[in-house]
């Protein structure tokens, strides 16, 4: 497919060239190749009377008058048989700016005939002449040309004759010298923007970035061939110096692009090329009056780099046997040949005024853009294949992970159930088991009838402890904390009343608050341990139990008015096991507890449990 596109482009170009030659054969214009010339001054609006000399067109006055920056007048004689018939006047080439007079009348003048000069050389000029401007017989055409010796100033061939033929030739020249250049400029800007966006989305592929940079710099360079003035520079030297620097940067970026396309990196060479580009721009900025007129050596160095890099790439492409590199090498053959002609023309080794690269550049840009787009498409196909493979692996990994998670979830549930059973066994052992062992020992070895009463009390404690376990494990867990505390409050109020301890309960905002079975048991165990300590050790006459939910926390307070104790002494004594039990219960509830106790002032026990943790 690629070869067909390239062959089609080449055939179209050849057909266009053949059609142009056939049209040229039918031309019926008179070509003036001889003229008289004389030097003039910048401010002079009239041709000098003396000093005229014959010259041949195409003329470059810098060879005849070296160093002459200013004005040269050209005088031509145009023989018209019938002044009643209009004629077309065609100026193929004028460098740099001009004014045209026919029989003493001004028919054209560029906007600026002094520095900064207009740039008339970029396109041919066409004028329609008729009566009363024309006269039968000899007509004098005066052309005032303003130019600078460093930029090949002069006048090209002048043709006149049939209006339609002259205009047709003008349109051909306009197409070859201006419109194709403008098309080259536009397509360079578009392709540069497209590949710049491609590079922005694929930063790792530097090939597209360097190609975008090279094409955009080429677009700036092409502006030299379509600009009608030297804006934004103050003079022709500044404009030409900048154009030279752009050409150097264009060649250097092109070399780096070829390296990246071949997947090569030569850091030292790239640094040298970058330094050369910076040097060119620095010189153009600091000394435009030197770089502009002395542009020949700069163009020679850049062209030498170009003619070394391009054949090297072609040899590498042929040896690599990669289709895209070979196609790109073929795309670069035509512009390389055209550039040889243009370089010879620039150094005036070829007597012509049409740069061929303008005719080949659009096709070359399209061909290179096609090759890069083909490469990008191939990369996208590889990415798509990788995505399919990756998706398959991800699906397999997801299935395996789901199986593993399901297995771990099953193990976690089994572990949780085992943990709950162990906690339940531990609670029964700590409460019910210990009390049962004590009761059995007392019944087996009674010392008197009075010893039976404490044993009965122990059995009652066992009954209450069993009820506590049953309330928190076997009952409906849809009950909130307020409902759960009802039986507990009733039993402990009776037990405390039996030993003359008044129990005052204050419950706030507990409706709708639900805890898990393990958390319910730990909370009631905590309260049970605290009230047991009040009943057995405090000697109090009153105990206040407060429980309220506020600010995402559950606050529990047990306060008595008993004799109190020293916490440090209690922890050191064997009886300190009760405090350890309280601490263990609080830790399992993820809560924090504090003990405020002094001898003779009673005891205040506080517990704070986070409701978020409790609810989870």
From TrEMBL:
Pfam family, one: HATPase_c
PROSITE patterns in alphabetical order: HIS_KIN, PROKAR_LIPOPROTEIN
Domain of life: Bacteria
Keyword set includes Glycosyltransferase: no
Residues that span the membrane, as ranges: 182-201, 208-226, 241-260, 272-291, 297-315, 327-348, 354-374
Keyword Transcription among record annotations: no
Entry keywords, A to Z: Kinase, Membrane, Signal, Transferase, Transmembrane, Transmembrane helix, Two-component regulatory system
Name this polypeptide is given: Histidine kinase
